[in-house]
Design brief:
Layout lengths: L1 E6 L6 E3 L5 E3 L2 H6 L10 E5 L12 H13 L6 E5 L5 H11 E2 L5 E4 L12 H13 L1 E2 L2 E2 L4 E5 L2 E4 L4 E2 L8 E2 L7 E3 L3 E3 L12 E2 L7 E5 L6 H8 L6 E6 L11 H10 L3 E6 L15 H5 L3 E2 L5 H13 L4 H9 L9
Helix pairs in contact: 2-3, 3-8, 5-6
The structure holds aspartic acid.
Aspartic acid binds next to loops.
Length: about 325
């Protein structure tokens, strides 16, 4: 079996620079810290799509390059492990789940909170177990056939996960969908939670970044809301509402939504609560957002809402086509 190990950067491969801050270093140095890789029953080949970087530098064109690189190499490998910084890992991994559908092979993102050369680092376990996850087979087929994040003994669906801690080894969480698997004495993948291909391989990497986010807060005024929703030239505005999808009775809000919709702006109601999501009929306070034809993000993560919106726009979906695409469960990202 052959696995492609892709190195994009992140803390996992960083060393302390002259000023004491962490900076990326090269792949060979990263791998020299994991001689155990030689014990795997597989050939591990490597690919570096760009100079290793902090993941806060990763942009949608990097997602496209990564998706294209995996797509072009899909027949040569049983699976793919992507080493990536944790800061934007959930964005890149979510984006890939939309750009590259029905691959029928595992793509596992991992990284670490401490560099691989540090004695207490979480990097070696994350890297070795990610490779083992990718190598799991049943009846001649890979057990995992979707994009996932492996971190600190947990395997999560990529488009259901977000970075919950900048300090804990247990950095990622999937608030609205069960873990796909756990690593303990044995490696357990939960068959009933796994996503399966729904058709032939589909490679659709284009994105369009005309998406904005407006986070509600007590005291927010019309001027700020207008500048983000109307003056910024966005096609999609994600409204981060309170609780299960609620908005205050701001008198200017319905007018602003009408005006935006007349200009073709699509509004999405996404909750500020990572767990539970939007249940629009729950409270009278959700009425404004319900009546204005605002789309519900359901129980999706904000990372999935942003990347799915960029991806749908990139596929040329506007108006009704966007609405239908957004409401569809494309890659296991939503259940509400
Ligand atoms: N700043 C780093 C990055 O995202 C953090 C990490 O990898 O944990 O690249």
């Amino acid at each position: 079996m052959k696995v492609l190990l892709i190195y994009t950067g992140g803390t996992i491969g960083m060393v302390q620079g002259p000023e004491g801050d962490l900076q990326p270093f090269n792949f060979a140095q990263v791998l020299s810290h994991v001689p155990e890789l030689a014990q795997l029953q597989a050939t591990v080949e490597t690919w570096q799509p760009w100079e290793p970087m902090d993941s806060s530098e990763v942009q949608p064109y990097h997602w496209e390059r990564l998706a294209a690189g995996i797509y072009e190499r899909r027949d040569r490998y049983s699976g793919f492990v992507v080493l990536h910084g944790t800061d934007t890992m959930a964005y890149t991994a979510s984006a890939l789940s939309f750009m590259l559908q029905n691959l029928g092979k595992p793509i596992v993102f991992t990284g670490s909170q401490l560099p691989i050369g540090v004695l207490r680092s979480d990097a070696r376990e994350n890297l070795i177990t990610s490779l083992e996850v990718v190598l799991q087979e049943a009846n001649g087929a890979p057990v995992l056939q979707e994009v996932a994040i492996y971190f600190e003994y947990q395997l999560l669906r990529a488009n259901r996960a977000y970075k919950r801690s900048s300090q804990a080894f247990n950095a990622f969480e999937s608030p609205n969908y069960p873990a796909l698997g756990e690593a303990g004495v044995s490696l357990q993948l939960h068959e009933s939670s796994l996503w399966r291909p729904t058709g032939p391989v589909c490679f659709a990497p284009a994105t369009d970044t005309r998406v904005g986010v407006l986070r509600f807060f007590p005291g927010m005024d019309e001027r700020l809301a207008r500048s983000i929703c109307l003056d910024s030239g966005r096609d999609v505005i994600i409204l981060q509402s309170f609780g299960s999808g609620n908005a205050p009775n701001w008198p200017w809000l319905p007018t602003l939504l009408d005006e935006g919709q007349e200009r073709g702006v699509l509004f999405i109601n996404a909750s500020q609560c990572p767990m539970g999501g939007v249940r629009q009929p729950a409270y009278a306070a959700s009425r404004t957002l319900r009546h204005a034809g605002v789309l519900s993000a359901g129980d999706m993560t904000l990372e999935a809402v942003i990347t799915k919106s960029m991806w749908l726009l990139g596929q040329g979906k506007q108006g009704v086509a966007f609405r239908e695409g957004f409401a569809t469960n494309v890659a296991g990202e939503r259940s509400l």
